[in-house]
Specification:
334 residues, 41% helix, binds iron/sulfur cluster, 8 strands, Fe-only Hydrogenase (Larger Subunit), Chain L, domain 3, globular
Length: 334
């Protein structure tokens, strides 16, 4: 299939043929991450707390920070990544709602990322006695499983995600492209700070460049943002903040150039491939096209967010949300 084809429905269909499983949409917990992260950003800005806040949904970047810039750990958002939030939601809310003992629930994530295999083993990210997520499979590994099972992927009819974690917003969808987390967070933060905000598209933070900067005024508050992808660019940004050369409010960092769409677990093309295409640009375009085709584009407008907060978490940053959806970090040696 051409690079940038949205194969979501076929992937769901293929996974359902691999086993008797429920298949949920991780864009849902990308929305949940935005709910918690936007709230944390606003609390930091209004409360005069540590800024800039750095995103924490990329375990490659988080571990880099833990090793090389431990003095910056207070700058990391305390939010778990969408993968870890999903595991925590499944082993708490979902188990309680469906009368399942969490020890009987095995959570497998499918993810474009090899660093997520490490993230699932983090001691400080567990729900009660259980790991949030039991196994993280890369998209390449899933593709291999599908091929080995002799499933003819391209012939599959699209199938839907399972209830109740089916519907996500465009904000959740663009999470995988560099600048996507920033844009999704700005959509929700702008709305919280200025209840009438209709700001949806923040084009300055889009594109595959390694570093992007912008300044926005939201609800009367000036927000200086930066987006970096690739760890060489992350280092540049951190050094500039450290020296006082830059005074950002909010920084998104992804370890992989271009973001998760270009993650270490994604299908790749070798130099021998004819019609070489820019994977980062094509895959990002697919996500932004999906976003712009959706009616629901802001995380906080998702009905699944309403369900989760009404039935379980009360509000972003509240006690239960803090216990299950947030995490500390650890200083690590070189
Ligand atoms: S940017 Fe790369 S390392 Fe970071 S979460 Fe995405 S795929 Fe994983």
């Amino acid at each position: 299939m051409p690079v940038g084809t949205n194969a979501e429905g076929k992937m769901v269909a293929a996974i359902k043929r691999l086993g008797d499983v429920k298949v949920f949409n991780m864009d849902v917990t990308a929305d949940l991450t935005i709910m918690e992260e936007a709230n944390e950003l606003i609390e930091r800005v209004k409360g005069g707390k540590t800024l800039p806040m750095f995103t924490s949904c990329c375990p490659g970047w988080v571990k880099f920070c833990e090793h090389y810039y431990p003095e910056f750990l207070p700058h990391l958002s305390s939010c778990k990544s969408p993968q870890q939030m999903f595991g925590a939601v499944l082993k708490s809310y979902y188990c309680e709602k469906n009368g399942i003992d969490p020890k009987d629930l095995f959570v497998v994530s499918v993810i474009p990322c090899t660093a997520k295999k490490f993230e699932v083993t983090r001691e400080e990210q567990r729900t009660g006695d259980f790991d949030d997520v039991d196994v993280a499979l890369t998209t390449r590994e899933l593709a291999r499983m599908i091929k080995n099972s002799a499933i003819k992927f391209t012939d599959l009819e699209d199938e839907k995600w399972d209830d109740p974690f089916e519907t996500a917003s465009g904000g959740g969808a663009i999470f995988g492209a560099t600048g996507g987390v920033m844009e999704a967070a700005l959509r929700t933060a702008a709305n919280i700070l200025d209840g009438t905000s209709n700001a949806v598209e923040f084009h300055e933070v889009r594109g595959t460049q390694g570093i992007k900067e912008a300044t926005y005024t939201v609800g009367g508050v000036e927000v200086k943002v930066a987006v970096a992808s690739g760890l060489a660019n992350a280092r540049k940004i951190v050094e500039q903040v450290k020296s006082g050369e830059k005074d950002y409010t909010f920084v998104e960092i992804m370890a992989c150039p271009g973001g998760c769409i270009n993650g270490g677990g994604q299908p790749y093309q070798t130099d021998s491939v004819r019609n070489y295409v820019d994977l980062k640009a094509e895959r990002a375009k697919a996500l932004y096209d999906l976003d712009s085709s959706m009616e629901l584009r802001k995380s906080h407008e998702s009905p699944v967010m309403k369900l989760l907060y009404d039935e379980y978490f009360e509000a972003p940053g509240k006690e239960k949300a803090h216990k299950l959806l947030h995490t500390p970090y650890v200083k690590r040696g070189h």
